[in-house]
Amino acid sequence: MSEFDVGGDAELQARYLRLHERLGQRIGDVVPRLTSPKQRSTPVDQIVADWTFAQLVDRTPGSESPDLPPGAEKCRDDTVFVTVAEKHLDDIVSKLDTPWRLFARPTRLAGYPVTELRSPRAEPLDHSLLVEGSLWHRAYAAAIDDERAVLIFAPYQRFTKQGGVPFPLVYTIGQVDQATTLAVASEFSMLGPPPPAWATRW
Known about the structure:
The protein is an alpha+beta fold. It has one domain (3-195). Helices cover 28% and strands 17% of the residues. A six-stranded antiparallel sheet has the order 1-8-7-6-3-2. Strands 4-5 form a two-stranded antiparallel ribbon. The N and C termini lie far apart (43 Å). The relative contact order is 0.17.
């Protein structure tokens, strides 16, 4: 998927161009907490501040997907991809600006009940799943009905060159229309709500 694949959809073309511009931005110029070298309190802060967002989300897909549920197919809709990518970059900025924000664990997305997927190979306390050659921190299935679901694979929060924070993956099971997939994917956030004000003072 790229801005060259969206035909005559001018709005989608513009969104792709804006996304590419955001990916080229230097993180230390965008994340408020990292704009000043004096605020970069850890070695990771120092490293990440000099990267672009493209470096942070970079991932080379592989062919190994042993934890992909039967019947799951990757969503290749451009609107869904751009929407997830835009939200993901917003989440990255929020996480880097407020490091103690935690992962969200949704119970419903767009009104549909959500269950967490688990790998049959994983240890009891291990939630990671291997899909497209990468390990994903958690995965969620929003059940549209008994035969259809939207799956979202969320990355680890690894703000290091060895890990990175790639775009979440969206898969579907059964024939799920664009509007439903987009509604579920749009509501997904990598992060939970901000901590209370009193917590940020410590």
